[in-house]
Amino acid sequence: MHNSILALLLFSPPAGGQTPNPFIQLVPLVLIFIVFYFFMIRPQQKKQKDREKVLDNLKRGDRVVTIGGIHGTVAGIDAEKKTVLVQVSDAIKITFDRTAVANIDKQESGNKLTTKE
Questions:
Q1: Are 41 and 71 part of one and the same domain?
Q2: Same domain, 81 and 37
Q3: Which tens digits make up the pLDDT trace of 5-30?
Q4: Cβ proximity of 61 and 108 under 8 Å
Q5: Domain that holds residue 27
Q6: pLDDT at 116 over 80
Q7: 113 part of a folded domain
Q8: 56: exposed, middle or buried (C-beta count within 10 Å: 0-12, 13-18, 19+)?
Q9: Could you write out the DSSP letters of every residue in 65-90?
Q10: Taking 80 as the threshold, does the pLDDT of residue 109 lie above it?
Q11: Cα distance between residue 10 and residue 36, in whole Å
Q12: Residue 31: per-residue pLDDT
């Protein structure tokens, strides 16, 4: 009994030339998968859902920063093409993919647009 408990806890083959239990050999792999899921996969999925929620709530007048570091104000949103029209200065408007928005600096009051202006 004592040897069986030690073999289970230490994941070592039982003494006496017996063949190891295949279940005991799979336990470390299952534990590694569980650790990866809870410490890497699950937080990444939650972060992705939060990012999608922020991008879905993007509206005209929001100050944004793109993944390229361009600061501007959302001038329009084309939901069909999934693009955002960002006004960089008075005369310059640039079209980006909606996913190119890295973060929102400040949300001002504005209407959520569904068509491009």
A1: no
A2: no
A3: 655 566 555 566 677 777 888 888 99
A4: yes
A5: 2-55
A6: no
A7: no
A8: exposed
A9: EETT--EEEEEEEETTTTEEEEE-SS
A10: no
A11: 21
A12: 92
- Residue 84: CATH number of its domain: 2.30.30
- Asked if residue 111 is part of any domain, the answer here is no
For residues 48 and 73, membership in a common domain is answered with: no
pLDDT, one tens digit per residue, over 38-94 is 999 999 999 999 999 988 888 899 999 999 999 999 999 998 889 999 999 999 999
Closest to 67 in 3D by CA, of 41, 90, 100: 100
Residues 73 and 41 in one domain: no
Beta-bridged to residue 93, according to DSSP, are: 87
Q: How far apart are CA 46 and CA 35, in angstroms?
A: 16
